[in-house]
């Protein structure tokens, strides 16, 4: 499916934007292509955009004080990603985003998102809904960390991203769960 | 300050609602009073509402599989709280909310929030902004957990809630940080 059609269908699940208005809305999104391994956003960068994934798979990650990588999110088609704290607070990125596979995204600047939201009540509704899904997913991930039950976290991950185990290197799945590769192998075989 | 005025000023920071419209908006909020220690929302409850705190201090918490309590959020005047995952997915609460002090809240049902958001573009804007703040705070808290630097987490907590150390029993601050009371004492004296 073309990127434009994918975005249109994604928004149409929540908000109704007229066909002729959608052309105008879409003109604010900038298509970008990236190669496997390429960085979209790096720690310390100024953050102006958020990204709607149209093909491939990205990861949003964080390197802690002990140089241990944690994956916050895998982003596949129709997922949105950015460092939202940096984007809204106009602070340097603490989260990095790069490409697990070749990938294509639509990039929307913060300024354009705010403009479109003020022009279209239905888009404001869409972005409220979208932000709310992100908030709930983030809360769920926080609770998973607090609950400290690795097996349950692994099952949640597979139900959130069913195709992930075959798509993504095992060390990245371990980095999402915050466990070693050995622990992951035991979980998968049990 | 009266509850109504507090809510009006809180919304006015983000969205402009006419004086006469605000009376109508406010009529959807139900004032409720609670005593210190009283439960507002308990694990397993059906969740229909979110709560805007107008006086006192609440805690939103979670008990894990090892019966260890984690505090997700302290909610003070002008903060909103609920189990948002349960509220939006219509699943039983996994988060509980109770009162650290006597407290007053304004309760808004999900149905009324959606109605008001569709009636007033500006309120939709307000709730998008509010949800976004929640999302960012939740991401920040998740990163804190991943970073696993207790001293930094403690400093973040005090900057988020400067009056907290004198207001809230120490074991609750420890439950927010996920540390023992002894570790908290060492942090505070260092």
Summarize the structure.
The structure is a homodimer of 190-residue chains. Chain A has 190 residues and is an alpha+beta fold.
How is this structure best described in words?
The structure is a homodimer of 190-residue chains. The first copy, chain A, has helices at residues 3-12, 19-26, 84-89, 110-119, 121-147, 150-160, 164-167, 170-177, 181-189; strands at residues 30-34, 39-41, 49-55, 58-63, 69-75, 80-81, 96-99, 103-109. In chain A, strands 1-8-3-6 form a four-stranded antiparallel beta sheet. The first copy, chain A, has a four-stranded antiparallel beta sheet with strand order 2-7-4-5. By secondary structure, chain A is of the alpha+beta class. Chain A starts with a helix and ends with a helix. Chain A has a domain at 3-113: Jelly Rolls (Sandwich). At the A-B interface, helix 3 and helix 5 of A face helix 3 and helix 5 of B. Chains A, B: This is cAMP-binding domain of CRP or a regulatory subunit of cAMP-dependent protein kinases. Chains A, B: GO terms for molecular function: kinase activity. Chains A, B: Residues 13-116 form the Cyclic nucleotide-binding domain.
